Amino acid sequence: MYAGIGDQPRHYERLNLTPGVVHVWEDGLRTDPSAGTFEWWYCDAHLDDGSTVTVEFHTKPPFVSPKAPLTPFVLLTLTGPDGTRTDRSFTGRPGDFSASTGSCDVVIGRNTFRGGPQGYAVHVEIDDVVLDLSLTARLPPWRPATGHAFFGTEEEHYIAWLPVVTRGDVDATLTAGGRTRRLGGSGYHDHNWGNIAPRKVLDHWYWGRARIGAYTVVTLMFVSHERFGKEPLPAVLVAHEDRIVVSAVGAEAVAFAERDVTVRPATGVPAGAHLEYRVFDGADEYTVAFDHEQDVFHLGFGSAGGYHRFLGGVSLRRTGDGGTETLRSRTLWELLHFAPATEGGATARLSAPDRIPPIGHQA
Questions:
Q1: In this structure, are residues 26 and 142 in contact, taking their beta carbons and an 8 Å threshold?
Q2: How far, in Å, CA of 74 to CA of 91, rounded?
Q3: Ramachandran region of residue 127, left (φ > 0), alpha (ψ -120 to 50) or beta?
Q4: Cα–Cα distance for residue pair 359/363, rounded to 1 Å
Q5: Does the global pTM surpass 0.85?
Q6: What is the CA radius of gyration of the chain?
Q7: Cβ of 347: how many Cβ atoms within 10 Å?
Q8: What is the pLDDT of residue 340?
Q9: Measured over all CA atoms, what is the biggest interatomic distance in the chain, rounded to whole angstroms?
């Protein structure tokens, strides 16, 4: 059974895409939000007071199967500097949903997610929480090859990922708990869609992003399900200031290492304490490494695997003609593992194994 990244001319032609160019319509509605598909628009922000906010607009809640009908869903998560977490969600009817196919213009009830190259505006109004967030991109959009991983003998199944804003400036007005605050910060936006439940084609994935000095990095490692040969399907972005210096896609362009693998007691899935991605830009070699310090969130699926969010150190080492420089910071990254949990793993906290945790969900 085939599994691979869509990086061939036939893939670009099939999807009507231009190599190296991200069109405005690519951030518009890409699926028929009926049975058999999933799609979401995601944004997160790290605010100046040390808090974080994540926003997700889904055609279907992430805890149901893609086989479900259109069920528009919005999730807002606020995490304070002290770790206090506030979640607000809205589940609408089909009539509450509209989305343009020409650009990002998504409406779910009173909630809107709109924008393009000039910036994004997100409005969420759920119960006692109101958020107005503007996101101004400081890097060009990045599509790793076609952004599609294909599966099946006829490449009939796919999962797509488009990091539209890998780093941007945030201006947010937030009302919560009867208090209104205006905060700045930095943010990220990506768009995800597909026509099959990820657990059916993937064994696991790692995702991470970080700002490290003047550099921005985004990393993704898909590993296909064993019936698709457990193929590694990586993608890495390295940007310096406002310029992308490395866009590496596929196992031939990205050297990946996972070390100190142990079974996480909370979910029973294996996770590496050290992840390393090595990519090249001409004479320069970049190594991005994540080092585990603590688990900050987990969600067990019982025999269907589990989801983990980790906190720890992240480093970027650049080696080239000018010598070697190493920069360090701290960040969050995630693991979604669909393999059966080992004996002693946690019982499921979700009943639906088709759950699709958003890539980059950094609550």
A1: no
A2: 7
A3: left
A4: 12
A5: yes
A6: 19
A7: 11
A8: 65
A9: 59
